[in-house]
Q: What sequence folds into this?
């Protein structure tokens, strides 16, 4: 009965549309799927919640991958096994560059591979780069939606909260945001011949500025549950789906 399912995420091996939006939170997957026509839940196992439906006539998958690169990469690999060929990550991130505000979108051009998993797949010198067409599709969709947005490099870091090692490794390098899963997606895409990219909603400043000083591992003042962030998530949901449609249109030409 389970032969037709992948081993970890338990998604069907056949029948999924080739275009997908992936998010961290299963509840956010449901919220994005609610924008689709004919949305239905395909599977829900562990942190991996998967929906299918259509966006303006395009069949799409919306799936959650949980927190962190090691678990997320399992979903990315199994979606590829199931026939998904284009994956856009829609997530949240901390801003690392002046002028990027809460609720703004950051469209990733590439990612620093500090994700805790891809170093075991490829040498560290191998780059994690978004597909140029994905970057352009996301940028066009953001412009058409009137969503404040920025392009730039993203730091994918396995540890969410700062410890005794400060986040100063890339000071002056112009990174736009810090998050936890994108480089795992981009490396999977390179290895599997997929089209991939990412757009992130800013939900705070970088992690060094979020501690309250009471302990090295304090969560401090981090609070992503604010109106500006919620508005950014709403805009980003539409931007992600629109970018998938634009990419599919490009494939058809």
A:
């Amino acid at each position: 009965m389970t032969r037709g399912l992948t081993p970890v995420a338990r998604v069907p091996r056949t029948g999924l549309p080739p275009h997908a939006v992936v998010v961290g939170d299963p509840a956010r997957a449901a919220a994005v799927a609610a924008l689709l026509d004919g949305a239905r839940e395909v599977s829900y196992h562990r942190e991996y919640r998967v929906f299918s439906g259509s966006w303006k006539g395009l069949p799409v998958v919306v799936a959650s991958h949980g927190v962190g690169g090691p678990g997320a990469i399992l979903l990315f690999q199994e979606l590829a096994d199931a026939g998904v060929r284009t994956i856009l990550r829609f997530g949240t991130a901390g801003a690392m560059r002046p002028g990027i505000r809460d609720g703004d979108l950051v469209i990733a051009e590439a990612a620093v591979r500090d994700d805790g998993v891809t170093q075991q797949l490829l040498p560290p010198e191998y780059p994690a780069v978004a597909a140029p067409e994905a970057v352009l599709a996301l940028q066009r969709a953001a412009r058409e939606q009137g969503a404040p947005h920025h392009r730039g490099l993203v730091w994918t870091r396995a540890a969410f909260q700062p410890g005794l090692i400060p986040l100063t490794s890339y000071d002056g390098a112009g990174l736009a945001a810090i998050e936890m899963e994108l480089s795992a997606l981009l490396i999977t895409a390179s290895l599997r011949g997929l089209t991939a990219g990412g757009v992130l909603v800013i939900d705070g400043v970088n992690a060094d500025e979020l501690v309250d000083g009471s302990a090295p591992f304090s969560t401090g003042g981090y609070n992503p549950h604010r109106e500006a962030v919620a508005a950014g998530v709403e805009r980003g949901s539409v931007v992600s789906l629109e970018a998938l449609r634009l990419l599919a249109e490009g494939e058809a030409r």
About this structure: The first strand starts at residue 19 and ends at 23. The chain has five helices and ten strands. The mean pLDDT is 91.
